[in-house]
Structures are given as structure tokens and as C-alpha cells.
Specification:
With about 500 residues, the chain is α+β, with helices and mostly antiparallel strands. The chain is built from 13 helices and 27 strands.
């Protein structure tokens, strides 16, 4: 009996020792180095995490949150229809129409109501300049900025750039404004910690943390997409707020989320702050952005293309076409050239070129390094202004879900293709083996209709593309060699 008790005691001691050792081992495996904890701007409490040290962002938040502001905008909308501004049904007016009523009773005074929007921003200068998103303040009749200490100011819109969704606003009557430090978004790496501060759903200032999930994301928002992707929680109302690195520097402007439900699912996007920094001087001086124009249509270099063009790597931007009369044509750039450097900046991937060209001052002469037939050439180009909306002269060919890219028709193309008096968009590139390629479409085809809807420009094309779903049958009316014909594609991706 005594021996049995003795054995039980030994077993208990062995179990306790094993548990103690396992706990120590667990703590050791998950221990965070002190330099990482210090870099995060705070202290880690191992007692709160069962021995596992995790980085604390309290220091960053305390020192930076005062520079983050909540933005509330109001827009007055005039609605002349009967019913509520939310579209309540009016059977008589919906049946007869506004023209019928106005013919007999005169034009009805428009009812005014206010639409409100919430967002975020951050202060970048002592004289009251604040960076935010264009979609937060666009068309606003009144902009109210609330600081973290509850002070409120009226703000004015200084400048905006819809193409990058960046806007600059300014407040007056300020005193000792806290500032956000702008960092270097090019230096961040995938996997680094980042912190988002903003005003999600209008609940007030909120802090979330995550990592950089990816860089250089193209989400179809515009021609200069180069987003930072993060899993830090970003929700409606966070738009325009800062994304901080572990040094407390702003590396991005929180802008968009991917979410079927409308809430956070761990996929958020931020504009790189380096892009915004290039725009600030123009936004201050002119209220908008004047972009440089090179006049080339480009495409990414695949492994197969690199072999075909005898290139050492897949870096650079392949020139698919040169716009007639453009700076590129005048300088001697030709179809088939691979642009590897522009004004001293390396073109690592195709998407690097449009942003660099756009940021180049109009009238400036720059050196462009190209690879042609395996040999390197340096050409001098004088950059011109990108006129109008710039859609007809975009620097880039984007491969879409159908495996092709399209461009606006120009007067030169219209004349060359004998397409006068007609409207459409021209296919500038076809991806080998893609849906469009398998469906019989070719580079140089002009798309006139999709599913019997007229396609007049790239805007019409994008609208149709957004509606496509997996399994859809897509009917194209195209112009080729002076004749029209129909092509049927199945959207099977």
C-alpha cells in the first residue's frame, strides 16, 4: 500500500515537471526579441499572454493618433421627383413622367435634402493641410474636421485627383496641430506589421493592426493602381485614414476594401504614400494634377516574350504600339522596344512606367533606355501634357478577365481602319490562350457591341465587364478588315 502511494507521488511529480518544462518551452518558442518589441513603440506584457511576448503598438498610437482626424461631409441634393429622396414609388408620376406634369402644371420646385458621408484623414503640416481620399470629400458642400481632442473645424477643398483618389483639404483657426510623419512606402516589405487608425462606421477613432499582405495590387480602380494590401481591419469610414509602419510613419492612405458583405474580410487596400507625396505640390498650387504623356501602349513581359525578344529577364515594359505624333514617336521609340529605364528610374514591371511618366513635369527632357533587337539604346524624349481625361492616351494596356486589353479609338486609327462615322474600342493586345484568343478575337479588332449594347468608349466597355459572371455567354460585334461580324465567347474563369 505504501509503495503504491509512493509511486503515485512520483507520477505527480513527473507530470508537474513535464508541464513546467513544456510551459517554459512554449514561452521560449513564442518569445519576441526585445529589439522587435522596442521598435513597435511599446512594451509587451508576458503575464497577459501566458508567457508569449507579442508586440505592443501602444506607443505608436499614443504618439500618432492625435494627427488622425474624422471627416464629415454634407452635400445638398436637389430632387424634383415626388416621393422620398430614397426613391419611394409614385405611380402617377412614374407612369406619365415629369414632362407630362410640367407641361400642364409647370415645373415643380425641386426638393432639397442633405446627403452625408463619413471618412478619415491625417494632418501633414502645421498650417492645416490634411490628406484624405477624393471620394470622401468629392462634391461636398461642407466639410467638417474633428480632431481627437473633439475640436471641430470647417475645412476647404484645396485640390483633388480622382485618378489616384487623393485629396488635400485645409483647416483654419488652428493651434498647435499634431502632425503625421510621412514615411517611405517603397521600403516596406510583405509581412511587416502595419497599424490603421480611422473612423469606421462613424463610431469614433479606432485602431486596428495587421501585416502587409501584398504590394503593387491592381484592383481596377484606375490607370495608376499600385495599392498596398493589408489584413488590418479597414471598414467604411476608414477611407482617407493613415496606415502606419512600426516606426510610426505613414506608409499608405486607407482607401478600399474587398468585401462581398460590405464589412471587413481581411482584404484592405491603401494608396502608397510616396504616390501622394508626388501629388501634394500640384494639389496645393493648382488644385489638380497635370500629368506627363509619353504616348505608348505597353504590356507586361512574360517568360515566353522574354525568350522571343532575347531578353535576359522579364523586367521592363514592352511597347505594343506607339501613338502617331506622340513624344515617343518623335524620339524614335518603336513597337517592340522594351523600356527598362525612364529618367534614371528602373522599370522593374510594366505598371511602374505609367506612374513615373505621369509624375514627370510637362516639357522636361528625359533619357529613356530601351532594349531593341538585343541591344541597348538611350533616347531623349520631351514629355508633353496628357490632355483631357487622358483615357485615349493612357500609357498602359491592362489585361482583363477575358484575356485582352482595349484602347480608345484615335483619329489616326479611325482613318487607318476605314472606321469613320462609327464608334467602338480597339483591342490593343490579346493574351495567348485566354478567353478572347480562344473565341477568335484578334489584336486590331474594333469592338462595336457587347451583348447588343453599344460600346462607344472604354467607359461603356468597363460597365459591361463588371456585369460578367462565370458561365456567361458574351456576344461581340466586331469590325475587322472593313467588315462586321459576330463572335461568341464563354466567360469561364
Amino acid at each position: 500500500m505504501k509503495s503504491n502511494r509512493f509511486i503515485k507521488k512520483l507520477v505527480y511529480v513527473a507530470i508537474a515537471a513535464a508541464l513546467f518544462g513544456a510551459g517554459s518551452l512554449f514561452s521560449y518558442i513564442w518569445d519576441v526579441p526585445e529589439d522587435v518589441v522596442a521598435l513597435s513603440g511599446g512594451r509587451s506584457d508576458s503575464s497577459a499572454t501566458g508567457g508569449a511576448l507579442l508586440p505592443s503598438f501602444a506607443g505608436i498610437v499614443k504618439s500618432r493618433k492625435e494627427a488622425v482626424v474624422n471627416i464629415a461631409t454634407t452635400r445638398v441634393i436637389k430632387d424634383r421627383r415626388y416621393g422620398s429622396p430614397h426613391g419611394q414609388f409614385d405611380p402617377f408620376r412614374d407612369f406619365f413622367g415629369d414632362d407630362f406634369f410640367e407641361k400642364f402644371f409647370g415645373e415643380r420646385p425641386r426638393r432639397e435634402y442633405k446627403a452625408q458621408n463619413l471618412g478619415s484623414g491625417f494632418i501633414i503640416s502645421k498650417d492645416g493641410y490634411i490628406l484624405t481620399n477624393n471620394h470622401v470629400v468629392e462634391k461636398a458642400d461642407e466639410i467638417i474636421v474633428r480632431l481627437s481632442d473633439e475640436r471641430e473645424f470647417k475645412a476647404e477643398l484645396v485640390g483633388k485627383d480622382p485618378k489616384t483618389d487623393v485629396a488635400l483639404i485645409k483647416i483654419k483657426d488652428h493651434d498647435d496641430l499634431p502632425l503625421a510623419v510621412l514615411g517611405d512606402s517603397d521600403s516596406i516589405e510583405v509581412g511587416e506589421w502595419v497599424i490603421a487608425i480611422g473612423n469606421p462606421f462613424g463610431v469614433g477613432q479606432t485602431v486596428t493592426a495587421g501585416i502587409v499582405s501584398a504590394k503593387g495590387r491592381d484592383i481596377g480602380a484606375g490607370p495608376y493602381d499600385d495599392f498596398i494590401q493589408t489584413d488590418a481591419s479597414i471598414n467604411p469610414g476608414n477611407s482617407g485614414g493613415p496606415l502606419f509602419n512600426v516606426k510610426g510613419e505613414v506608409v499608405g492612405i486607407n482607401t478600399a476594401i474587398f468585401s462581398p458583405s460590405g464589412g471587413n474580410v481581411g482584404i484592405g487596400f491603401a494608396i502608397p504614400v510616396n504616390m501622394a507625396k508626388r501629388l501634394i505640390p500640384q494639389l496645393k498650387e493648382t488644385g489638380g494634377v497635370t500629368r506627363g504623356w509619353l504616348g505608348v501602349m505597353i504590356q507586361p513581359i512574360t517568360k515566353e516574350l522574354a525568350e522571343s525578344f532575347d531578353l535576359p529577364s522579364e523586367e521592363g515594359a514592352l511597347v505594343a504600339d506607339v501613338v502617331e505624333g506622340s513624344p515617343a514617336e518623335k524620339s524614335g521609340i518603336k513597337r517592340g522596344d522594351v523600356i527598362t529605364f525612364f529618367d534614371g528610374e528602373k522599370i522593374g514591371k510594366m505598371r511602374d512606367l505609367p506612374a513615373i511618366v505621369a509624375a514627370t513635369p510637362v516639357g522636361r527632357k528625359v533619357k529613356v533606355k530601351v532594349v531593341r533587337n538585343g541591344k541597348t539604346k538611350v533616347l531623349k524624349v520631351k514629355i508633353e501634357k496628357l490632355e483631357g481625361s487622358g483615357e485615349e492616351k493612357e500609357e498602359e494596356s491592362i489585361i482583363d478577365e477575358l484575356g485582352m486589353s482595349v484602347q480608345e479609338m484615335t483619329p489616326e486609327l479611325t482613318k487607318r481602319l476605314d472606321f469613320e462615322g462609327k464608334e467602338g474600342v480597339i483591342i490593343s493586345m490579346i493574351e495567348s490562350g485566354g478567353i478572347a484568343d480562344r473565341g477568335g478575337l484578334r489584336r486590331g479588332d474594333v469592338i462595336m457591341e457587347i451583348n447588343k449594347d453599344e460600346i462607344k468608349d472604354k467607359g461603356d466597355y468597363r460597365k459591361v465587364m463588371k456585369k460578367l459572371k462565370k458561365g456567361d455567354t458574351v456576344l461581340f460585334l466586331i469590325w475587322r478588315d472593313g467588315n462586321t461580324s459576330y463572335k461568341v465567347l464563354t466567360f469561364d474563369k
